[in-house]
Each structure stands twice: as C-alpha cells, then as structure tokens.
Amino acid sequence: QVQLVESGGGLVQAGGSLRLSCVASGSTDSIKAMGWYRQAPGNQRELVATISNGGTTNYADSVKGRFTCSRDNAKNTVYLQMNSLKLEDTRIYYCNAVYTVGYFDYDSWGQGTQVTVSP
Question: Which of 116, 117, 113, 81 has the alpha carbon at shortest distance from 96?
C-alpha cells in the first residue's frame, strides 16, 4: 500500500502563490502516477493536475498556465506550485497516487489540505 501526507495549504490573497507538497511512503516502487485533485463542499472531487513517473503532466483547463505539478522521485514527493490564485481556487486539495498490485491499479489519497484565497 501507499500512504500520502500533504502539507502547504493555507490562506492567501488573490493573485498570490502557494506550494503544496505530498510525500509518499510504503510501496512507493509500485506508484505509476501522482497528482492533485480538489473539492468544494457539496461538489464532486475534480482533477487539478497529474504527473506520470516519466514526468508527463496533465492539467485541468482552469489551472493551465497558473499551476505547475512537479515530482522528485528520489524523495517520493509531488508538488503543486499555484500562482495567480483566484477566489474560485478555494478548495480542499487532495494528493493522489495510482499504484499497481499484481494486475490491478489502486488509488491512494491524502487527508486533504485546505487552500483559501481571500479578496
């Protein structure tokens, strides 16, 4: 199994920046991809960004050009650099890892970190 611990959320003014970090532990060699999702109360969890083991990234249209997802494989850590933050970026952000056991893929989730953007 893979365990994830996020850090770096907080309160920031609109236009500001934050960097989220997520450290993976456990069976990290089985991880295929990592990424970030976010969720507002009463809404479904939505993709923010993903990054493969090879470094290929994928972003939601709403964050392209503002957010950057990166990964340090040696530290089993994935980052989300968030710039030019907007009020609508206020969400709980969750780290995700997709890992393989045998023939099957599984999802692991972090506990979530709150990002609040103020006017």
Answer: 113
